[in-house]
């Protein structure tokens, strides 16, 4: 019985985080696309395109934490 309660608590605790990650991933992809549309310098553009490619792939695979990592890479490229 205790194991079932712990499992239920774990599921309840992780589902909202997963939904937040998915939302952050989707909005990050949109942000990267918008930045690419602004025609940044070539070096930044290459980094943004690579980050977008990874973010889209991870989004399709449902690996939202890795998608967010790619979005963060894009943000770093923009900050340079």
Give your account of this protein's structure.
By secondary structure, this protein is an all-alpha fold. It has one domain. The chain has three helices and no strands. It is elongated, with a radius of gyration of 16 Å. 20% of the residues are buried. The mean pLDDT is 86.
How are the elements arranged and paired?
Blueprint: H1 2-37, H2 42-61, H3 64-79
Helix-strand string: HHH
How many discrete domains? 1
Average pLDDT for all residues: 86
Q: Let me know the number of strands.
A: 0
| Sequence stretches where pLDDT stays below 50 over 5 or more residues | none
Number of helices: 3
Give the key terms.
mainly alpha, 80 residues, single chain, 0% strand, elongated
Question: What would you say about this model in short?
Answer:
With 80 residues, this protein is mainly alpha-helical.
């Amino acid at each position: 019985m205790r194991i079932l309660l712990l499992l239920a608590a774990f599921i309840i605790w992780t589902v909202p985080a997963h939904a937040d990650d998915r939302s952050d991933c989707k909005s990050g992809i949109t942000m990267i696309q918008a930045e690419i549309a602004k025609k940044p310098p070539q070096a930044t553009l290459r980094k943004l395109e690579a980050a977008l490619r990874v973010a889209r792939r991870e989004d399709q695979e449902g690996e939202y934490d890795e998608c967010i990592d790619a979005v963060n890479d894009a943000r770093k490229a923009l900050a340079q």
